[in-house]
């Protein structure tokens, strides 16, 4: 369990997140991922990063059961700091980050891929933000980087997901491939980038972040404030308890 770092030839690094059964990350998992990204990006030998996951899906967000088991709000505060750190680490990684997404990409997973430079998805990949059903808010900042504004709002309010093919249509997914070709496709693209001059690519990443119209770190932090506010009302505790006992709601 954890985030595994595999250094491949030509300066490509593959980070694989593995938290069975569904890659719903606990507090420690988010910080481990952030640390892996930070250390990998700081290595001058790294030219491109592929972020992928083992198991049934790319990411199921935060570990709701860990938060629900905490009688106070300590775990909630900690996991929000962990998510912030991981999303920031993806965005500020000095080299391009390619997310290779299979299965479900939910909640915090949207924060990771939304802050990635490039997304390659398998044919079975779906993307959604079920935060409203969990009594939480957040990552609309990152969903807005994947879909148009009104689609984002509809997805956010309803909790519905979209497919990889839909994101391909919107232009936010670079390529959709069969599941068994996902890692190879992501690594091939990473190698293409890695063959460029490394200083130019690092400066390109820095310059692209510099011209972004939205400060994603500040925008997400603003969203988190409303999650804290909802928790003070008690509605979030109720939503988490319902999730723990009944599981996720089905999309209509």
UniProtKB/TrEMBL annotation:
For this UniProt record, the keywords arranged alphabetically read as follows:
Lipid metabolism, Lyase
The cross-references to InterPro entries, in alphabetical order and at most eight, read: ClpP/crotonase-like_dom_sf (IPR029045), Enoyl-CoA_hydra/iso (IPR001753)
Listed under GO biological process in this entry are:
fatty acid beta-oxidation
Q: GO molecular function, one example?
A: lyase activity
Indicate yes or no for the key word Lipid metabolism. Answer: yes
Report the superkingdom from the record: Bacteria
Tell me the Gene3D superfamilies matching this sequence. Answer: 2-enoyl-CoA Hydratase, Chain A, domain 1
Homology family: Belongs to the enoyl-CoA hydratase/isomerase family.
The record's section on PANTHER family has: (7AS)-7A-METHYL-1,5-DIOXO-2,3,5,6,7,7A-HEXAHYDRO-1H-INDENE-CARBOXYL-COA HYDROLASE, ENOYL-COA HYDRATASE-RELATED
Q: Which NCBIfam families match?
A: PRK07938.1 (NF005925)
**Name of this chain's protein:** Enoyl-CoA hydratase family protein
Organism in which the protein naturally occurs: Saccharopolyspora hirsuta
